[in-house]
Design a protein that fits this description.
By secondary structure, the protein is an alpha+beta fold. It has helices spanning 4-55, 75-79, 105-110, 167-173, 195-206, 212-221, 228-255, 307-313, 330-333, 374-378; strands spanning 92-94, 97-99, 163-165, 178-180, 259-267, 281-288, 297-302, 320-322, 339-340, 353-359, 367-372.
Length: 382
């Protein structure tokens, strides 16, 4: 019969085995729990992105903002590093080799107007500290170079016209004749707006993306009170009087060409009558062919992506329309005289034969069409 000592040793070994089994099971459960937590965080991030895309607000005060998102307001404070070295103006170090910059800072400085500032000793100190005799200027030494930004300045331009009269007619014939130059037409009647001023407002608004409300504060900071309502009036009046005729001429020349490129993209309008701020609108763009010699780009806003919008714009066009094959241009495929998505590099608007069509692996909704032209085959080209 086993002794009591053997039984105790056996029980201890069993207990140690059970403990090791429980520890291994616990470790495996921890790893599984960590994997589940990672999957849960990933799914929560996907859900949050979907909520932003579907319910996110279009204004600057976003409701769905990730706590991990980088702030654009304190970026400079977060990214600053006093020990960071200044870039070298002579060379740019690239992995594996060095090369000279295409346009260095020194080359750009040479194009700017230059001003020399001379620092001098005060007149009452131009004496030698040892003997007291007056000092003699022996030369100058270069200290440093810096670039200064001059804020925009405002000025009032008053237009006058000289008037002339004929003394002979007035004296001999008793007729007073007055001559003067005809005044040029103002940009806007009964307004202080100049072409340069309105162009600056429109460039900041539509090129730099600065809203009129922010421009109003900028003008106020520069000491000139210019309200956003006044700027909005200038933009609308100038567009109606000067830009609309230019738009009609550009559209006429665009439709007279043989090839037009077209596409559309999503835009959002916050305050549009009859539509929610979260709804999507479309911006259509039409461009001329490079071989036409006229670089024309026309943007047209539409509240939706209906193909009828494109069809209405191109109602008088009889050439070849090059698109990405989206369903928006389907109404044009049945229009007479318009070849959609088919072009020839040799003959401009020559209709080409569709060869094959496939779907790209990354985006199953996108299609790619390859066309071949009988003209190319005649010349022995593939």
């Amino acid at each position: 019969m086993p002794t009591k000592s053997n039984k105790s040793h056996k029980s201890i070994a069993e207990l140690e085995h059970q403990i090791s089994m429980l520890i291994a099971e616990n470790d495996s459960q921890k790893e599984e729990i960590n994997n589940l937590r990672q999957k849960l965080d990933h799914m929560n991030e996907i859900l949050l992105n979907m909520q932003r895309a579907r319910f996110g607000q279009s204004s600057e005060k976003q409701k769905y903002v990730s706590p991990d998102q980088l702030s654009v307001f304190n970026e400079a404070e977060l990214e600053q590093d006093p020990k960071a070295p200044e870039p070298d103006e002579k060379t740019i170090i690239v992995p594996e080799h060095k090369r000279k910059p295409k346009g260095s800072l020194e080359d750009k400085i040479k194009e700017l107007p230059s001003e020399d500032v001379f620092l001098d000793i005060p007149e009452d100190e131009k004496f030698c500290s040892s003997c007291g005799k007056p000092l003699r200027r022996m030369g100058k030494k270069f200290l440093r170079r810096e670039i200064q930004s001059i804020p925009k300045s405002m000025k009032v331009v008053n237009y006058y016209a000289y008037t002339y009269t004929c003394d002979y007619c007035e004296k001999e014939k008793g007729v007073s004749r007055i001559y003067s130059v005809q005044a040029p037409e103002p940009l806007i009647k009964h307004s202080y707006a100049s072409p340069a001023l309105v162009a600056d407002v429109m460039t900041q608004k539509y090129v730099d993306g600065v809203p009129l409300a922010l421009q109003e504060k900028i003008w106020q900071r520069d000491g000139f009170a210019l309200s956003r309502a006044t700027m909005a009036n200038w933009i609308i009046k100038v567009a109606e009087k000067w830009l609309k005729p230019l738009y009609k001429l550009m559209k006429k020349q665009l439709l007279a060409g043989s090839v037009i490129y077209a596409d559309e993209t999503v835009v959002q309008v916050l305050k549009e009558e009859g539509k929610a701020p979260q709804s999507e609108s479309r911006m259509w763009v039409y461009g001329s062919d490079g071989r036409s010699g006229k670089a024309i780009r026309i943007f047209e806003y539409q509240p939706d992506r209906s193909g009828e919008r494109c069809k209405r714009f191109l109602s008088s066009f009889t050439g070849c329309l090059v698109t990405d094959g989206m369903p928006d241009t389907m109404p044009l495929r049945t229009s007479p005289g318009v070849a959609v998505g088919r072009t020839c590099a040799e003959r401009g608007a020559t209709r080409c034969r569709r060869v094959r069509q496939w779907r790209t692996p990354k985006r199953q909704s996108a299609t790619t069409t390859v066309t071949s032209c009988s003209h190319s085959k005649e010349n022995g080209k593939p």
